[in-house]
Sequence to fold (686 residues):
Amino acid sequence: MSALEIDNVCKDFGTTRVLEEVSLAIDSGEFLILVGPSGCGKSTLMNAIAGLEPVTSGRILVGGDDITWRTPAERDIAMVFQSYALYPSMTVRGNIAFGLEMRKVPRAEREAAVERVADLLQISHLLDRKPAQLSGGQRQRVAMGRALAREPQIYLFDEPLSNLDAKLRVEMRTEIKKLHQRLGTTIVYVTHDQIEAMTLADSIAVMRDGRILQLGTPDEVYNNPVDKYVAGFMGSPSMNFIEAELAGEPGAYRLHIATEGEAALTLPWPTSRETPALAERLGQTVTLGLRPEHFAEEDTRLGDRAEGTPLSARVSVVEPTGADILLRLPLGDTEITARVGPDCQVAPDERLGLRVDMRRAVLFDADTDARLA
Amino acid sequence: MKSVSTPGEAARPVGAPVSRPSVTGHLQAWLPKLVLAPSVVISLCFVYGFMLWTFVLSLTDSRMLPSYDFVGFAQYARLMNNERWWVAATNLGVFGVLFVGLCLVLGAGLAILLDQRIRREGMLRTLYLYPMALSFIVTGVVWKWLLNPGLGIQAMVRGWGFESFTFDWLVDPDMAVYTLVIAAVWQASGFVMALFLAGLRGIDDSILKAAQLDGASLPRVYWRVVMPCLRPVVFSAVMILSHIAIKSFDLVVALTGGGPGYSSDLPATFMYAHAFTRAQIGMGSASAILMLGGVLAILVPYLYSELRSRRHG
Fold:
């Protein structure tokens, strides 16, 4: 039995359809992240789970119970908002206890819950302050405390870290992950930040235009994307897409990449990654997807023992980030990004030998963006 | 001449005389004070000066014309023994409490109802706000006709066949003051609604969502979460309404004329009657000073507590 099941949910605002037959199910204790660009329907889906927006059709089940038409109060769900949504006139203590008070929990139990949560989130010294006297990170903790105090079946997080500065965001991200590991709570978390999605999730649902494009583990979504959109959305810097002509024959496919002013580059497609779809595209243009880390600097000491396919290109921009160096190089009719080690000695306009790991490359249809191999 | 943003700014051209920027600098520093000076002088003279003069007159035996024969607090003693003054003061208490209270309740209620994302909200909002565009004289005249037993509501309902229906507060000495409340609430509650609506619109939507998820019913959401956020609005509304209540004069003149008899007198009409029509300038001034004292007694503690609590967050 799933902790949360969403069954063919559709949602219309007037004549616009914002959720299109969304279905998903997560187990108890699972951390699901809904990720996508703004306007993709992820917040609408979250509001539908919370009961703040009625759905047009479909069912929502929590622990096997159909809750589609219950009010927010009747659902055992707590939510953490992007703006924290703390009650300004109440103290931190009052904020945390409010949900319990509304559910008529006796005072002694309420106080015990406040103490427990405050301890857990290290906000005991803030209990008598008003939200206006707290910093952003502290408000975020109080908002989480308010959700935790009720011990609901499902926690919803609506872009909870977007209002924090970069350093605090990373800290709170770790903290949310720790809390989840410690308490084993079921969480649905909305974000547009793909790094948050990758680091936190047990499973990721990538959404676009009201549909779930792909639902899978972070590893699946990152390394095995269903289409070009998912491939481009996940990962930073994002995946390079290179137009190439598919040539050769089954068992020995090759990709031809024509670069202006240079000899055409030929990359062999690994036999193990062949699919039947490739045979139909023979002689046509396809899109090759390569992540920046699929490139590596040619190591001359290894000679022929080096793995990957060699290629050489003229470097146009060098961007050191400290941990590694990002290189911009023209390849085909685009400029690609390659990530190399921090000790790579290269200047702009120099040629550099690279190795590309074609076993991890992906191929998409140039017209439909669907995955080919 | 181009103005310099800061007097001491070191942006003057090389070789320019040193004294000139300092002259313009002085001008810059003095200009705001010079511009404000006339209005400060005028308000000092005509507001505080005349307040002081009224106080001085209240200590004299002035009748038809001001005189300066000081009689101490005799005028105040006369006032305290004047039955008409006590009627006016009691009426102000009844009128003020009911007017401010009803306006707040109705205004807040209308604002909450209008805030439920209803259709034609803009039209309704304007409709409720329109009475504020009328002067109290017009309101008074309209309600005088409506409440006139022979012309208005009572005549209409009787015309429908309910022969025994009676609604004659306007001519009932015990009830006349409540007609003032009806007319004044009709006029001002739309304005209070606008204040509350602006306050409600300033509240983060997700706070309401959070309270709903926390299990609060809609009335409790408003009572426990929203209303406490609107304390500054209540503060402004009370300030504005109470000064309207205390200085109410035109409404009384147009609606009841202070009558029947002097049963619906307010201190403002009492003061006007004595100072300008009954040749009792001394007693009129004394009543005016008592009104000022009443205003200060109510507003100063309220201002103090509100502003202090806001400073402490």
Residues 166-183 of chain A form the longest helix (18 residues). Chain A has two domains: 4-233, 240-365. The mean pLDDT of chain A is 89. Chain A touches chain B through 30 residues (CB under 8 Å).
